[in-house]
Amino acid sequence: MSEPKKLYIKTYGCQMNVYDSERMAEAMGGQGYVETKSPDDADMILLNTCHIREKAAEKVYSELGRFKGLKAEKPDLKIGVAGCVAQAEGQEIMRRQPLVDLVVGPQSYHRLPEMEAKTREGKKALDTDFPEEDKFEKLKNRPKAKRGPTAFLTVQEGCDKFCAFCVVPYTRGAEVSRPADRILHEARDLVERGVREITLLGQNVNAYHGAGPNGDMTLAGLIWELNKVDGLERIRFTTSHPNDMTDDLIEAHGTCDRLMPYLHLPVQSGSDRILKRMNRSHTADSYLRLIERIREARPDILMSGDFIVGFPEETDEDFKATLDLVEQVRYGYAYSFKYSTRPGTPAAERPQVDPEKADSRLQELQAVITRHQREIQDSMVGRKLRVLFEKPGRQSGQMVGKSEYLHAVHVSDASLKVGELRDVRVVSSGANSLAAELL
Ligand code: 5AD
Ligand code: SF4
User: What is the pTM of this model?
Assistant: First the structure.
């Protein structure tokens, strides 16, 4: 028997790309490929790219340039670009970098095996269509391999919101939800393979409206169905839009026992003037009132968010409104970014904020966020938490897992095993994790 061919995938960006890369690896598994951790011994290299911020395309070109030597040594090596840069740049990638054999957009991954075959005939393969089929259904070619205790599961893709700064509606296309039965089937399969926690993914996950047995199902409806899956202990979802936080989903946070008390709910800015210019269709006040309702349903919920500073025309006063909002919410985690121009989006044409000003605002915002994060993490000391253990820690006999609130927790106990869910008492709070003892 011949040696299996080797596939090296490098994944950039969001969790959805991580999920997509796994599906691509499985699909190529059906073509006789096994994954390798190094590009050096690969027969095929795939860059699964992200286009959301910064000079994404330039980074991809410089990364591709580094494979020049490898390709010279091994002319049979196939190089592909997938993900949102592939979608945004298309043919341009092959024109600028002749090393590239294959360009595949996020909605065409199910066509990857045929595309690879085409490259083996010495042709170039490009597909950046938005076909109607469920790509994940077509990608179902999976070996029943054991899995770790946590997994992502994509339930919805694309976005119809068109925030003025964002490329997602262009690169991932219009919002599409997968039918509930396929998701439940995939969830049961993951559980059989050892998964105990599933994070439902979607660019606009709480707008989920997939076909169910009695018409369309909401995300809350789907969560309640997943709550019945034997062996699935924890459910999370990300990323949500404030305008799609429906009553049933808020209520589920109070009543659904396996839904974890953590919610990533980006607001982007605390200034109504900027929110309007961002086309966010909510105000700072409506967002704060929403959080109040969520906290009524689940008082201990840990909030997480995203912020953009230096959005075109942002004044000191607008920025101060963002700081005020952050003080009111007190996020357990928050991700803040300096605005970066995305060609083709409405905000790209507008007057830009002085980059130094944007830098100093970013630092100021991050300092406040870090302080809250610290205080919230430290407040866990002495508390009883439930931890899903995911992997051995750095020290021998140590295991690391995540609490309900997604804090990393480590425990020194040689008897602990990966995949165990145990009650612990937190004894101290370190730089990025909590130390705890088993109860
Ligand atoms: N510039 C800076 N940050 C951005 N994000 C999206 N587009 C941009 C951009 N052009 C941020 C938003 C979003 C997160 C995933 O990335 O905060 O919620
Ligand atoms: Fe982008 Fe999120 Fe806005 Fe959609 S809701 S356009 S994904 S920032």
Answer: 0.92
